[in-house]
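Posted in: Structural Biology > Protein-Ligand Complexes

Title: Requesting predicted complex, iron/sulfur cluster in pocket

I'd be grateful if someone could produce the 3D structure tokens for the following input. Sequence and ligand are given below.
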Amino acid sequence: MATTSALAAERPLSSELWFNVTDVRQYLYCARVLHFRLGQPLHHRLSYKMNEGVLMHQRAGELERRRSLKAYGLTDGARRFQVPLASARLRVRGQLDMLIERQHEVIPVEFKNARAERQTNHRYQLTLYALLLDELGLKPVRRGFLFYLLDGRADEVVVTEGMRRFVTRTLREMQTLALTGSWPEGTRRLGRCRPCEYLRFCNDRW
Ligand code: SF4
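-- Reply #1 --
Done. Output follows.
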């Protein structure tokens, strides 16, 4: 994690910089990944792999329209797909894969092109969508789902106030990283480095 958290906690969010929801997931995977990506032009940041990911999410949405809500343990709810969300306060925008609207709640759903495995950064990505939905003031967001496409499983994630605070703090850290250009610590999980496209730039990892 970046060493700038104490500084970040004291700064207001910059009014200039906007992040995408996926930036939070990458930052929590490894802060250096965000550092490298911020140094690239936007069209490079939207790499082939990411564009493939966008197409996959669209295809998944088309399939999901034909399914019931059984995988989510629900019997009712109206679904919307590819929902654009943004917050000027948090300076974040993103596109939610699916939103389930029920009488007393709204539920964000994020599709993952993987088998079910609980990754912390995915849970916090979902939490950020919950924060963006909070700002719309529709209905309470108490939970979300990560839908794993390869085995058709939906994992429920209860979105707590503590998780919301953590993500808000994380956004401030990311802002500080972007504004100062400081060199963050890399992930402590070395297994993440081997397949990383930035490995050759991290001299302490090879
Ligand atoms: S090689 Fe490791 S430390 Fe460097 S950016 Fe990738 S994941 Fe982070």
